Amino acid sequence: MEMKAGEQEDFLAGDAAGAEVPIPRQPPVEFSLACRDLTVATPERRPSTAVHVALVESQECSPGAYSCTEVVQGTRDPLFLTGVTFPPGHPICEETRVKLTVYDLKNPSSETRNILGYTTFSVGDLLKSKEQQLTLSLRTSDGTSTVGAVVVTRLKMGEMEDGEADHIAADVQGQKCTLLCESVHGTTSEKDNSPLMNAVFENPVCKVYRFQTVDNDWMTVREQMTECTLSFSIPRQLLALYVQEDMGSIEELKNLGELSPHWDNLRKEVIAHYGQVISSYQETLGELTKLTGPSFKPSCCKGQKYLEFVPINLHTQRMHVTCPRKADAFYDVITVGAPAAHFQGFKNGGLQRLLSRYETEKKNFSTAYQCIYFSPGDTSKAREVLANIGQLQPLILVLADRLLEAAQHGCLDPLKEALQTLSDKTEQFVHALKDELVKTALLALHAARPGYVSRRGPAVCNNAAGGAGAETPPRQDSPMQPQAQDSIPHRSEYDEEEWDRVWANVAKSLNCIIAMVDRLQDHSENNNVGAPATETPTEAQMEMPQAGTMPPVPTSTPTAATGKAGSTGEWQEKLYPLVITLKDCVAEVVDHATKSMAFVLLQEAACSIPQGLLLKQRRDVVFSQALAALTCGFVMKLYAGLEDKGFLQQLHTVGLVAQFESLLSTYSEEIGMLEDMEVGISDLQRVTFRITEAESQDPAHLQPVVSGRRDHYTVEVPLPHETFEALPDEIREGKPLQVYPVLFNVGINEQQTIAERFGDISLQERINQKNFEILDGYYKSLSDKVPLECLPCSQTQTDLKELLETLGQNVVTKKRKNVEILWLAGTICRRLNGIRFTSCKSAKDRTSMSVTLEQCALLRDEHHLNKDYFIRALDCMRREGCRIENVQKNIRCRKYAFNMLQLMAFPKCYRPPEGTYGRVDS
């Protein structure tokens, strides 16, 4: 079903007032249904029945459609597995009346139905009944005949009978509950309705079921699917950061100074393209700011330009399981369309192929213009240096002012503490910026100045290129020591001592400050009775910075002294000119380093205009979608594990694995999507998370905040005061939290059949092998640093090491549509306390098949689902569950976008039940 542009805009615009759903504190009302002694017109025929559930708002109003059970065939006493739940926010009270209509589907495949009868009841009647159960007479439409009975039984998810809590507490004492378990105290509803959850997740859709276990007990299962406000807030923040960074790049290029005509023209061209990108991003940001509708981008809008930074169909799905005399458990998965640049298209492939082609063009450009070739590692390093400059220079200036402030008060201890901090940050500044790449880039920049004539001819540039790729000489013992002079390729046109001189001045100015503090301390101690005399600093130590060699930094620190000495302002007066000199010397280093790194980035941008900047835009788009999904998953995982000490220890000690499952084929356009997705997921390695304390519990103060540049982003996740204070010290102190993204792909549709028989699946094989190595490395690191007892346990007997070995064998095995790779990777991720994602092109059809299959597999493996109920449970979830509601939300049609020919190519367990699919636009 194709939507027109106007309809798509209306779909997203929505009603701002209706987008926010108030969530009450009381648990939702949920009940199951069964029928008895149904009477049909043809007695010898056994009916196929379903129950339609609606609310009767008032006597004057007609019933409003609400939900429907699955179809049960061949019995007059059907027991329905699909129950009814009134989700949080639905206007339910004791007076609310519910109408139940029982249908007889003579031909389920054609959905031809006859009404057998109906009945009504009030919510208050159900809640007040002693057995929490009602048996209602089913009457014909005219009310004259009884055609059976309907049994309504209230379901109590997360609520236990007397004595069950103590029993469960004893069972789980000293060990982890099955996978991610609910706390024994409190209900899931209380957690789902917390201010944290309501700030980020909204518009829940709930479905409830009951299934039989192998020991003939009944488990209750609830699905809850929600939208995530981060779908739009993360892209908006990233777009603002992109604009800010590109504006800074323009200023850096302008500050390069005078260049030769060739390089000046390239600079103007690059600046012009930067301006176009900035204008486009600002326009997109403005459009996103106007949106007030749902908090997700439907699949029918994936080709919209102003929505290209927004992830497709991002939703969370949680399965909550209640079993008799066992602790509740829940299982989360994030569903999202494959991060890809759909608006830009895939005619020339995706990011992985385009980046490889781009590097070849850069090398050809460098050869043609006889200039230094800077590798992707060099350009990444250049961005890192610029980021370090932006972080460390302001910090050094603040610390220098703090030193003067301590000197003004004339107290030694604060003065020495301020000096030590300043010295440490200055040395960190040296380590971060004194890189061989900066020196090489300075030479290249000098060669781009007007009037430069190489006395050695083109071969000089080739030597420089060799220098750029050469190994950096080892550092001296002290970070302030100069590197050997012969580490710079000889240039008679260039002052080869200039770069070392600016560093020598930083060292000298810092030495002067240290020596002056020593002198002030000596003066203070000599004025105290009985104070030991110390050696007065020499004139050499007090020598002001000038051209020459760099003296070593004194390794001794001032001896401890307390008390006040000297008149107020005397010490500040002596230190002030030395501090100003240090600031000037640091500024000179920054000027050289900034210009050299800006030139590296200029050459990168100039190598392939406009392809290079268009490629960057594509990467920005894909990364934005991937980061929004990752942040959603991280927040959901964090909220679920706030009371789990083992999880929190794992989080700050090693980090979390984020496993992306992809069902894309390696054929036609989808191979381009997979190439985009691979790079986007890999780029998430540049992201760290940090937990902060929120100003209040206001939803606006609980939204994650993104900061940084393209080379590294930090996502700050605010928590309320009480929650924040309960975290481990390492997390509260702002330790960066790592996430290890891994991607596994197995195509399952008819296009993958073509690829396997006539095409190329090497991309899928390479992705799976590469990411298995990352996952295996994470497990080994985790095993070394965190007790494996902290990880979730499982009802299955297979240990993690064995699962990883089996996965390793599968990723190298030549087998068509080897979906076992996905099952193993998903199981390992859950056992590692990781974050699970499932994707296809739109996260709507194939994703629905995968999510429902995984949920039923978890019920079978972890909660002993009766094998006779496995297929029924799968059909219930696919026919009436959250995933068909997701389809409805996306394309306003309750049909999966499959046809019979396509489904013949699917693995059997990924095929939907009859009547739930049809050829609609996906």
Automatic annotation (TrEMBL):
<dbReference type="InterPro" id="IPR035892">
    <property type="entry name" value="C2_domain_sf"/>
</dbReference>
<protein>
    <submittedName>
        <fullName>Inositol polyphosphate-4-phosphatase type II B</fullName>
    </submittedName>
</protein>
<dbReference type="GO" id="GO:0016316">
    <property type="term" value="F:phosphatidylinositol-3,4-bisphosphate 4-phosphatase activity"/>
</dbReference>
<keyword id="KW-0378">Hydrolase</keyword>
<feature type="region of interest" description="Disordered">
    <location>
        <begin position="464"/>
        <end position="493"/>
    </location>
</feature>
<keyword id="KW-0443">Lipid metabolism</keyword>
<dbReference type="InterPro" id="IPR039034">
    <property type="entry name" value="INPP4"/>
</dbReference>
<feature type="region of interest" description="Disordered">
    <location>
        <begin position="524"/>
        <end position="567"/>
    </location>
</feature>
<dbReference type="GO" id="GO:0005737">
    <property type="term" value="C:cytoplasm"/>
</dbReference>
